[in-house]
Amino acid sequence: MALWLSSLGLLLLLPAAQAGAEVFTLASSVVGNGDRIASARLYMGTGCSGENISPELHWRDAPQGTRSFALTMFDPDAVSGSGRWHWVVFNIPAELMSLPEGAGEPKSGLIPEAIQGRTDFRGHGYSGACPPEGGDGHRYQFRIYALKVDLLPLDESTPAEMVADHINANKLAEAQLEVIYGR
Q: For residue 175, which of 1, 14, 26, 31 is within the disulfide window of CB 3.0 to 4.6 Å?
């Protein structure tokens, strides 16, 4: 299928959608796309009084050739201007298609095969939502990435931005679940 954009003078070749093709998706049994995140999922500290419990997440229809997964939670609306990393998990085995509630606590042992990287909260594991008071609230984007490699050559001390660079260099596909929270 070809699409001509005359105002830009560009010819874009877009792949035709295949009938019955599955779409890589990310979902949760405890929060839906566009929903307000529950207080149990909020950060505990810096003025927030949540329980800092990561939600259950599951995904399906990863593309052929997926050898591992990576998961991130990112707040693009953070006042820093460059966003804020709340959770970074990588080297999730390709046969794993979900993370249980509470898996974001590294000491829980719920995902022993994976590495939970350093977040912008200076720790490892899940750091729940905690935007500043006032305003319209923030978007929190959970993203699962299907990767073409078994392992990213990184460890738990690697900054989230560097993990994101490695994810982007090795991704086959990504799916997103976006939730909101304001106070």
A: 26
CA-to-CA distance for 73 and 153, rounded, in angstroms?
Answer: 20
DSSP code for 161: H
Instruction: Please provide the average confidence, as pLDDT, over all residues in the chain.
Output: 88
Expressed in angstroms, the distance from the first to the final Cα of the chain is 46
> pLDDT of 68-79, one tens digit each?
999 999 999 998
Spatial CA neighbour of 115 closest among 153, 60, 162 = 153
Distance CA 101, CA 116 (A): 15
- Which residue matches tokens 């999922």? 41
Residue with the bigger pLDDT between 21 and 116: it is 116
Label residue 48 by pLDDT band (50, 70, 90): confident
Distance (Å, rounded) from C-alpha 108 to C-alpha 102? Answer: 7
Whether 127 contacts 46, CB under 8 Å: no
Four-CA torsion 129, 173, 24, 51, nearest 10 degrees: -20
